[in-house]
Structures are given as C-alpha cells and as structure tokens.
C-alpha cells in the first residue's frame, strides 16, 4: 500500500494505492491523522483500492470523527462497489459524501 498526501489550496488529498488491511491500516492511519491535522477539508482517493478490511473502515471512521469535530468535511473518491457494499451494511456510508472523480470532490469541498 502507498499513501500520498497533496494539498490543493485549503483541501488535503489523501491518495491510497493498494489494499487496506490489518497490516497496512496503521500506515493509512498515520497519514490520515497527518491530513486531519493539516486541514478541515479532506478528500480520500480510494480509486486504486480494491480491498478494505474492517481496520481500514475504522480509520475512515476516525477521520470522519476528527474532521466532524473541527466542523470540516470528508469526501471519499472512487470507492469500489464492493467497499461501498460493506460501508452500506455497516452504516458507515451515511457519514461520507462519495464521488467518482477527484475533481468532483474538490468542487464539493470548495463550496464550504
């Protein structure tokens, strides 16, 4: 798994490549925490993530809670159908805006 963090004005983009499981979730969590410390507007690009375990979902929930506590917003990008199904079953899907492309996420986050 690889995590890249970039800034687009006041929006922080966290791009993840590879599976998020119990072995890779700690690295994802470290990077996600850095992102939430930098910005109140976060886009998490999961376009290149095919599998996410419950450990990855827990990190997404942590990001949501941190950003919500700052009156910020999180948008997920390119979430696979399988991951969306799991998020729907767990109820996590209700916490996030989900879009197909990063450009859409940037537009949503710029509106706030």
Structure description:
There is one protein chain. The protein is of the alpha/beta class. Helices cover 45% and strands 27% of the residues. It is built from 4 helices and 5 strands. α2 (54-69) links the parallel β3 and β4 (73-77). α1 runs parallel beside α2. The protein is globular.
Layout of secondary structure:
Layout lengths: L1 E7 L2 E7 L7 H14 L2 E8 L5 H16 L3 E5 L3 H10 L6 E3 L2 H10 L1
Parallel strand pairs: 2-3, 3-4, 4-5
Antiparallel strand pairs: 1-2
Shape: globular
- What is the number of helical segments per DSSP (H or I, 4+ residues)? 4
Give the % helix.
Answer: 40-55%
Low-confidence stretches: none
Q: Alpha-carbon distance between the termini?
A: 31 Å
Spatially, the strands of the biggest sheet line up as 1-2-3-4-5
User: Order of helices and strands, N to C?
Assistant: EEHEHEHEH
Class based on secondary structure composition and strand pairing: alpha/beta
Mean pLDDT: 95
Q: What integer value in Å does the Rg equal? A: 12 Å
| Approximate strand percentage | 25-35%
Query: Major sheet: size, sense and barrel closure?
Result: 5 strands, mixed
Number of strands: 5
What's the quick description here?
The chain is α/β, with parallel strands linked by helices and 112 residues long.
């Amino acid at each position: 798994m690889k995590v890249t963090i970039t800034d687009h004005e006041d929006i922080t983009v966290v791009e993840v490549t590879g599976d998020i499981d119990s072995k890779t979730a700690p690295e994802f969590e470290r990077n996600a925490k850095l992102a939430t410390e930098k910005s109140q507007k976060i886009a998490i690009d999961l376009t290149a993530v095919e599998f996410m375990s419950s450990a990855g979902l827990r990190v997404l929930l942590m990001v949501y809670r941190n950003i919500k506590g700052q009156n910020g917003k999180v948008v997920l990008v390119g979430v696979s159908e399988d991951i969306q199904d799991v998020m729907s079953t767990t109820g996590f899907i209700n916490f996030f805006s989900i879009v197909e492309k990063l450009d859409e996420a940037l537009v949503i986050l710029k509106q706030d």
